[in-house]
Amino acid sequence: MSDKVFIFDTTLRDGEQALAASLSVKDKLQIAMALERLGVDIMEVGFPVSSPGDFESVQTIARNIKNSRVCALSRALEKDIDAAAQALSVAEQFRIHTFISTSSIHVESKLKRSFDQVLEMAVGAVKYARRFTDDVEFSCEDAGRTPIDNLCRMVEAAIAAGARTINIPDTVGYTVPNEFGGIIQTLFNRVPNIDQAVISVHCHDDLGLSVANSITAVQHGARQIECTVNGIGERAGNCSLEEIAMIFATRKDAMGVETNINTKEIYRTSQMVSQICNMPVQTNKAIVGGNAFTHSSGIHQDGMLKAKNTYEIMTPESIGLNRNHLNMTSRSGRHVIKHRMQEMGYSESDYSLDQLYDSFLKLADKKGQVFDYDLEALVFMEGKSDREPHYKLQQLQIQSDSAEGGANASVTLNVAGEAKTAQAHGNGPVDATYNAIAALSGEEIDIISYQLGAKGKGQDALGQVDITAKYREQNFHGVGLATDVVEASAEALIYVMNLVRRADLVADQKQKILAKKELGGV
């Protein structure tokens, strides 16, 4: 049996079905080209008969993709197959994927036919699709709940009709791994022509078992996995492509199979899909989540500083992410603080580690996560970090014009005890507010990320704004919380401005100490 597992990506078909709004043709092509760089063998990019927009998307992608095989979905109906074939005809090679339900509940309740009638429809669909291409895939929808005798009959008949890939979906995510693996094993044992087709699996995540079921299927002989980037898809989603790829790459010793996936494209592709589809990746998501290569436990951080493989079974670089991160929290030990100070260029003689660590713990208990600029402030501004902030919001007034566009803001800040006001225009209320604040501070601060969320539910929820801003090649993090999202935005920027002000004071203190050292301590 081959040790190659084909990766069949269905992000643009099953994945897109879960989105609140359909993607544009341009968006789909951008994702398709990313999937091609990622190295997927087959990409299922739409359901052409469903709408003119889907037809156009499939045709556009088929025309532009050269290194992956493009596939379109169709029901076991001639009009569906005609639409798929027509959309795909611009490609040199393509696959038609046709399907029909096989479980008793689907056959009786949805199709309202006998199993023999459904079998006849499946055979007819496969034979019809073979008129357009040699590459025909047939799926037994809801195979996980299909009586095994019926499933064996259907698979044998579809292969005999000309299907070269047979897909066994766990459509509703119902089976558990040993059960699903048993289904695959039974097919290999009982279907006489099974060697004439590649056995594929398509598992959903309703019980959180899509990846486990897919891996088990491969261990029992399946050689194609249908999956999506970030696991997006109907209901709880699909089998996650990045998890499958990294399981095979990391545990090749246990699995003994390989894929064509370029794992260094995983992170970039994940981020692109998340952004275009407007589906954030959960922080603790395996492989691509924000915490996947982040370490907070003091014991773990100590191990990572000594040898990265103590707590990382794969490197961030292996997925195209050139960093791992040690969160500085109250759980961090002295070794992490010492390491961060060394990374910033400080020697042990520049500070007292015991005093700094005590101050760090107090600050970490107050604010949760501590950043490099906080550590420097603790070293150079001992006893001053809790003083009154330099900038405070005193008043904010906004005027928006929906007819002409844009907005005007009037902002009054308390600057070191003195009230100062500035007015500014912007593309919208937040832009105008930020322009006014910039005029008051005189600082050139570049906003590199802006995130708006809500604390609570309903119209009385608090708006929370989190920003990351760059100042003199250093990133600063600000947060604002208010019932008015423009006010929350202003508070987040003012938070950053106070950090920047503190950083400038720290830089002055450092310069004075360096000058003193150069003069021999005089």
TrEMBL record:
Keyword Cell inner membrane on entry: no
The record's region (Regulatory domain) falls at 392-522
Molecular function GO labels: 2-isopropylmalate synthase activity
Q: Which residues form the Pyruvate carboxyltransferase domain?
A: 5-267
Task: Identify the pathway.
Answer: Amino-acid biosynthesis; L-leucine biosynthesis; L-leucine from 3-methyl-2-oxobutanoate: step 1/4
Q: What is its EC number?
A: 2.3.3.13
The entry marks the following residues as binding Mn(2+), namely D14, H202, H204, N238
Pfam families (alphabetical): HCS_D2, HMGL-like, LeuA_dimer
Name the keywords, alphabetized: Acyltransferase, Amino-acid biosynthesis, Branched-chain amino acid biosynthesis, Cytoplasm, Leucine biosynthesis, Manganese, Metal-binding, Transferase
Q: Which domain of life is it from?
A: Bacteria
The cofactors required by this protein are:
Mn(2+)
Looking up PROSITE patterns in the UniProt record yields: AIPM_HOMOCIT_SYNTH_1, AIPM_HOMOCIT_SYNTH_2, PYR_CT
- Enumerate the catalysed reactions: 3-methyl-2-oxobutanoate + acetyl-CoA + H2O = (2S)-2-isopropylmalate + CoA + H(+)
Asked if the keyword RNA-binding belongs to this entry, the reply reads no
Q: Which HAMAP family match?
A: LeuA_type1
PANTHER family attached here? 2-ISOPROPYLMALATE SYNTHASE 1, CHLOROPLASTIC-RELATED, HOMOCITRATE SYNTHASE-RELATED
Q: What does this protein do?
A: Catalyzes the condensation of the acetyl group of acetyl-CoA with 3-methyl-2-oxobutanoate (2-ketoisovalerate) to form 3-carboxy-3-hydroxy-4-methylpentanoate (2-isopropylmalate).
Q: Which family does it belong to?
A: Belongs to the alpha-IPM synthase/homocitrate synthase family. LeuA type 1 subfamily.
Subunit: Homodimer.
Q: Please give the name of this protein.
A: 2-isopropylmalate synthase
Q: Which organism is it from?
A: Shewanella electrica
Gene that encodes the chain = leuA
